[in-house]
Amino acid sequence: MTRKRLTLILLGVAVLAVILAGCGGNDRKSEQNPTLGAATITPPPTRTPSGANALETPTTLPTWTAIAALPTSTPLVVPPPAIPSPLPTWTPAASTATPYPYDVRIAYPVSGSQIAGYVTIVGSASHPRFVQYALEWGPDPNPSNLWYPFLTPPQRTNTVLNSGLGAWNTTLMPDGVYQIRVHAWLNDGTDVDYRVTGIRISNTTPTAMPTLTPTARPNQLPTINPIPSQQLTTGQTVAVPVTANDADGDTVNLFVSSSSPAVAAAQVTGTREITLSGLTAGQATVIVTANDCVLPILPAPRLW
Questions:
Q1: What is the DSSP letter of 31?
Q2: What is the largest CA-CA distance in the chain?
Q3: How far is CA 225 from CA 103, 106, 173, 249, 265, in A?
Q4: Whole-angstrom distance, CA of residue 203 vs CA of residue 173
Q5: Other Cβ atoms closer than 10 A to 109
């Protein structure tokens, strides 16, 4: 803006000089008009700012360089915790059943008998899971449940049904009252036994035994009428009558055993009666045997 104003002022001065020159020529007409040269306009000097007003040469801005893209982060995937495999369930080995019936008992001597010398123990040692059996004696009473084998070898691995289980040499025992039992071990790790009590050994002064009267007739085995199956509830006890007959008129004794004492308990509660008790759910075979005290012994029908 300043440069334009200066230029206009100078142009005005030049025009004024021309006008003044024209006016002077009218007074001096006789004078020779000098030739006027064309007015020269001198442009004003270019102002160069200096000092504080001088503009600094701008510094070149640095060229923008694109920053390389940051690598894309990969999300950390945390796998779910592994579910531990369940521990294998222990399954006990199934016991191997055999065709042997359940019959573990002593038929002779019976509780309260008086014996001396060598005595053959008669009865049965049989079970579907049978492994071995032993005959054992103990004091009577026997609060400490002490038992001592009297067979050689102590254990037998053969089953016995209604026959001799072994012999007992009572001369090796002091006279007194004893218990004896047949003890059977099973292949599932359990055991069962049958006991008779009040066995009196009298080797020093034996009691006179009654003389048996020989008879020419053969002994006839006792019979038992069929016994119907019984169905009990847990905790229920029922008395089952047993009809047993002996053609010879001999006294008939009843014996009873249960194949599963944990399921059903069985016992003789009368001369012609047994009692069954339901303990847990399941199935048990109850064997009733009639004995007329003359061997052999007759097995009875089974209760299911």
A1: S
A2: 217
A3: 20, 23, 42, 16, 21
A4: 9
A5: 20
Q: In the structure encoding, which two tokens stand for residue 263, read together?
A: 């399921």
pLDDT band at 156 (very low <50, low <70, confident <90, very high): very high
Contact 227, 242 (CB under 8 A): yes
Report the sign of the C-alpha dihedral through residues 108, 109, 111, 112, in that order. positive
Q: pTM score, two decimals?
A: 0.40
Domain 99-206 has CATH 2.40.30.100: no
Residue 16 has pLDDT above 60, yes or no: no
Handedness of CA 221, 224, 226, 230 (dihedral sign): negative
Q: Please give the torsion angle defined by the CA atoms of residues 204, 210, 216 and 220, in that order, rounded to the nearest 10 degrees.
A: -100
Identical fold, 99-206 and 220-304: yes
Q: Which two tokens stand for residue 78?
A: 């945390």
Query: How far is 198 from 263, CA to CA, in rounded Å?
Result: 29
What is the predicted pLDDT for the residue at 291? 81
Architecture of domain 220-304: Sandwich (2.60)
| Separation CA 13–CA 51 (nearest Å) | 32
- Residue spans per domain, the chain: 99-206, 220-304
